[in-house]
Amino acid sequence: MALFRLVRQHCTTTRLIVVLVTSIILLQLVHLFLLSLVESRAEQNKVQKPKPPTPPKRTLRRPSRLSLGLDTSGNYQVLRFLVSSDTIAKKATNGKDDVTVVTQCSVSNLHHVQTLAERWVGPISVAIFSPKPKIKSIYLVILHLRKCFPAIREYVSFHLVHPLGEVKDAVRPESLDFTRDDNMALEVPCNEVLEWIQNFQNFNKNYGDDVPYPNNLLRNVAWQGSSTDYVFVIDIDMVPSTELRQQFTEFIVLKKQTMQWDMEEPQNLVYVLPAFEIGSDVSNLPMYRTEVKALWDTGDVRPFYQEICWKCQKHTDYTQWRELNVPAVTDRKLNIAFEVEWTDPWEPFFIANRNIPKYDERFKQYGFNRISQVCEVHVAGYNFAIVDNAFVLHKGFKNPGGFHEQKDKDNDKNRILFRLFKEELHTKYPDSLRRC
């Protein structure tokens, strides 16, 4: 009896094992079938999925590098390379050891570009501000400048910035497809163009509109429109000394070849140009250092901001620069004359590597927009070297009372922002021992 129960129990266990094994085999077969079905459908969908249509080729009338975008705040639309210089369009330079003049203005101040282009004879990037995106009118002005002044056509690229008050203010790509023919007939004779631009009725002057003038945003847009190793940021109504671009590139190349500087110097040095103002009654702008000194002696030239904010410029040490003993034979070569430690509120004009800190775009209108950038350059570890045989010249004397009505209000507002900006630098550069 015991033996019979043992045999029966063994048979039951065997059947159970057979059932389990059979079930597992069936489940595996079902799994393989379902997997095969899924793969088959996926392959079928892959084959039947239509290819996206190839977009038709478009014939663009605008420069190939033109692009539309927004600034970081989303409050301004930026049209980069609204018009490219012929040099950029032809890709005629690689930008190595070269310098781009970076500047900005409203449309009615574009007449200053003529003197700047003919004096610089090199790449210039101009950011234009317009309260309204009057693209065709702006292009008409640029067209006249390009056709009447070959240096502008060859060297100057133009960008546009305008506020986005409403969605309808946005420029759309299709609106840029108007015919832009550099050979079309001009509406104004070349000998009247500059005066026509100054009196152009469709646009306001810098700081002359209810819309805040975003000078630092404009500077950054023009900066981004450069393709050279170095940038020289100045105001539109300023002109550099003659041959400065050639002097500087030769200076940089020579220093690199002879290894006359320390390994870190090319990265942490900016090259300051003494800035001057010249009276509006002086017909011929000085070209060289010797001519500036002569006009300085007669009172027709004076240091920049001498009557407005002397403490903002005096650290250039004009007296030392004036008394430099520069041999006549090397009068047109560029050298470092001396270095100056940055002191608040000095805001010099300088040539620098394009990778230095850019401008804080929160600053608009008048006050602290330039010094905020100079302050950060100092905190970031850069040093300031004064050059001997070059300068930058502002057309016209700067006098108290010659500013827009809201100047003091703008200054007070930006002073508060500047205090916050300096505190933020402590966080941005925690290891720097320098302060503003």
User: What order do the strands of the largest sheet run in, or round the barrel if closed?
Assistant: 1-2-5-4-3-6-12-8-13-11
Order of helices and strands: HEEHEHEHHEHHEEHHEEHEHEEHEEH
| Major sheet characteristics | 10 strands, mixed
Q: Any idea what the radius of gyration is?
A: 33 Å
pLDDT < 50 stretches: 1-7, 42-64
Helix content: 25-40%
Shape: globular
User: What is the beta-strand fraction?
Assistant: 15-25%
Could you explain how this protein is built, in words?
With 436 residues, this protein is of the alpha/beta class. The protein has helices at residues 2-48, 86-89, 113-120, 135-148, 150-155, 193-198, 215-224, 244-258, 265-268, 289-298, 318-322, 369-379, 407-428; strands at 67-70, 76-83, 99-106, 124-129, 156-163, 230-233, 238-240, 269-273, 275-278, 301-303, 336-340, 349-353, 383-387, 392-395. A 10-stranded mixed β-sheet has the order 1-2-5-4-3-6-12-8-13-11. Strand 3, helix 3 and strand 4 form a beta-alpha-beta unit. Helix 12 packs parallel to helix 13. The radius of gyration is 33 Å and the shape is globular.
Provide a quick synopsis of the model.
By secondary structure, the chain is of the alpha/beta class. It has 13 helices and 14 strands.
Fill in the keyword field for this structure.
disordered N terminus, about 15% strand, four-stranded mixed sheet, ten-stranded mixed sheet, globular, alpha/beta, about 425 residues
